[in-house]
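Bit of a strange request maybe. I'm writing a small parser for structure token strings and I need a real example to test against, not something I typed by hand. Could someone generate the tokens for this chain?
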Amino acid sequence: MTITQLQYVLAVAEHQNFTLAAEKSFVTQPTLSMQVQKLEEELDIIIFDRGKKPITITEVGQKIVDQAKNIVNEANRIKDIVDQEKGFIGGEFILGIIPTIMPTLLPMFLKTFIKKYPKVNLIIKEQSTENLIRNLQDGHLDAAIAATPLEIEFIKERPLYYEPFVGYVPQLHRLEKTTELVPEDLDINDVLLLRDGHCFRDGVINLCNASKSNLKEQFQLQSGSFETLINLANEGLGMTLLPYLNTLELDDKKRKNLKFFKAPSPAREVSLIYHKSELKIQITEALYDIIASVIRGAITFQDVKIVSPLNK
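Reply from user aminoacidic:
Good idea to test on real output. This should exercise your parser:
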């Protein structure tokens, strides 16, 4: 039994296809198939049912796959131990970021990070929270930036900053004359929302003390763009809520429509999250320090009340 064989097993389990697993493992399909078969013969069990399309994992095979994940992770820790001992911060690091954070936060820290740590090959992927969680569990991401708390047993969360919700209230709206908003002012059916699947959408619904069953949308909006929500609000279709960082680059005309909440401001907690196995922790720590240092100048709010992104 070898680590390579276990890695091939994990690839087949993920892709449910030997050809695709071989492609992703950068080996030929016969090589990968032969190594998986050798492992099955050594263990005297069948890991994959090849008679089904897509390939399925047998009951005992699933136990092997689960254990293989642990073994491969622990094997990877050996390199981590050596890197930490040498003080080396480098190599490939895959970071996931949710769509409502990526456009505002990434430009703030990326240049500083790659300049300070030129030996790190930082790969950044924009993904939904659901995909971030799955990919952290499967080892396809080294860390992620998301709205928290997520309350997931295998994930560690390190808060980076607290970002207030800000109201965007156009002229002639019922709240136009309101100086400071309070959550009780909000009517969930009057608030323009991002498409389903965004945790910011769920946070807004929670802030309004509503559930998705209370939501009676007059039209279906399939957009992940705050700019679209602002333009619809300006057309008299309602108001919307924005993350604070998204308000900083608005022009003067649009900024006049911003309404802040009365303290404590409702806010989302933005955290760096990673697997409890803490693989590549030295890079994770470096990333955390860089982001935390650059964000302090932009986010100064302290008197806030965290709004959970979890679905009600």
